[in-house]
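Weekly modeling sync, notes
Attendees: AB, CL, MP (scribe)

Item 1: holo prediction request
CL wants a bound-state model with alpha-D-glucopyranuronic acid before deciding which constructs to order. AB pointed out that an apo prediction alone won't tell us much about the pocket. Agreed to run with the ligand included and paste results into these notes for async review.

Input as submitted:
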Amino acid sequence: MKTSIFSLFFILICIGLHAEDGHKLWLRAQSTSTVNVECSKQSPIIEIAKIELQNMWQGKAGHTVVLKLAKTKKLQGDGFLLSENQIESNTEAGLLYGAFEMLRKQQTQSSDFNGIFNPSYDLRILNHWDNLDGTIERGYAGQSIFWHPGSEAFKVTQEDKKRWTEYARANASIGINGTVLNNVNASPKILTPEYLNRVREIADILRPYGIQTYLAVNFASPSVIGGLSTSDPLNQEVVAWWKNKVNEIYKLIPDFGGFLVKANSEGQPGPQNFGRTHADGANMMADALKAQGGIVMWRAFVYNPSDEDRAKQAYSEFMPLDGTFSDNVIVQVKNGPIDFQPREPFSPLFGAMKGTGVMPEFQITQEYLGHSVHMVFLATMWEEVLNSDTFQEGKGSTVARCTDGSIFKQKYSAIAGVSNVGSDINWCGHHFAQANWYAFGRLAWDNTLTSEQIADEWVKLTFGKVSNTEDDADFVKAIKELMLDSREAAVDYMMPLGLHHIFAAHHHYGPGPWWAPSGMRKDWTPPYYHRADSLGIGFNRTTSGSNAVSQYHQPLSQQFNDPETCPEKYLLWFHHLPWDYKMKSGRTLWDELCFHYDSGVQKVRGFQKIWDKSESYVDTERFAAVQKKLREQSLNAQEWKDACLLYFQQFNQLPIPYDLERPVNKLEDLIEKDEKQIREGRRN
Ligand code: GCU
């Protein structure tokens, strides 16, 4: 009897060690010894900081850590000063961030323990594209954690509260201090009393973790839910309506952050419906929020079905308004001029709007990068964008420095990431997609961190031992390399050399360079972007074409304008070139394209090998889940390569270089497969 209880216990321990569902994210550590945490002040945030240190402590047993609130000039915002015995900050949230940093350093066995850690951006915000019916636009990890459909809509369950608390804790651990709870395609209903009451409940749970709550609002709210005959921003009744609404919100949520607005974009209402400008609309809302310290994040994601190149439209619309926005408006700009493609040059608005607060918007959810099936570590992409030199104020005017307050003294510096969080037990659908949530937070805190540093931390925290015994260096190295290669692999098998937006249908998942249903807006179809014909391929955005190059500062506009000096990764973004154009490698453009597609496929095969080799280091549950996803990614990569090469080959009739692997799919089968999926409503 004794033996059987013992063996049962042993089996349970083994199962515990060898099955992880990923719910704990990068916060798996359990304390290995005791710590004494002291602070002269008490508050909910400080209490959480203490508990976190106690629960995850990996340092010396019986050590004392002092949390000290200070007024130190060298600390900015929520910055903190860290030493072995003390965390000092000017804010309570800073003490919590310091506690998490201390724990991270212990778990990753980091040697540089002491230092000042100031945040790059004041506001580090997640945007949830969550609809009030519980679905998530471009969400691939289940339903919304905030909103439920039907009769569940206004009930706040213990399960809800638990999930919101875990969510808040995860964000605090990486420095995120704001969240927009609903979709930018905003339902006006969010501003009705029932929903605002639920927002209050959520905000109450997020607050002790240092997180401010924001809402996406619909510009037509005054007429849709307010009973007014117009939503014209210059109409006095409309102005009063927003002021009252803002007051109502602040009564419920005294630290409310403000509004996010998608206006006059993809069918959403906006000030232009009333003959007003974006600035008229944004400033009216900003005025309503100002007294309470709220802000407006006004999105620059605008384009119309006009003759103007879509890549130029946001700049054309917003640049003339530079200098006319209130100081509590921040124009939120997607990283590239089109729409979160696997690779885009940076948006020319960065650095150009010198008299306006500007914030970058990144997409954490992998709308265009394989949803929650493909393993794509996005830190390398964001690093590429942040480090891009705009040259706007001379050399070194990187996107990072143009937006974080280093160059332009905007009142608020901010950055947003479109969240990949859903109700799935592992939060993000793919275990490795958690790394993108993590990376966004870390880069928002410190935009000079390298992808390599972030991957190193994340792998150790996510797959390392839960107590601080040495991690296996070979395993960490191999997985890191895989992650760091993964985005380039996706670019290679999806759309290399500057190709973009060649997805089938609206699902933005599989290949569809052919996809152009009759009657469809041209700028929603791939041929608009790739422009392949018998002579060549690519979008001419040079001075002889759409002239999008002119929106970039010198020397970039000149560099992009000439195919000889344009970086090859952007070649077909800016140029339409003949199939036999000579590339730097000596290959023709067609051969180079084939080479990239093939190399993308080979890279994913390589990822499978690395992962399979790691079996003994990873618990069985997460190992199997990732292995399965990699298999599907590998098949998808092959489909991408075959679909694109076979489709483009129809124009040029050239052979795929014979030393490359042959396609294994037929073009008509791939087209049929995709059409079938659309008919069946899958992947939409
Ligand atoms: C993309 C995406 C939409 C989203 C939009 C936006 O177009 O496909 O689902 O609403 O971006 O950022 O507003």
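Recorded for review: The chain has a mean pLDDT of 95.
Action items: CL to compare against the apo run; MP to circulate these notes.
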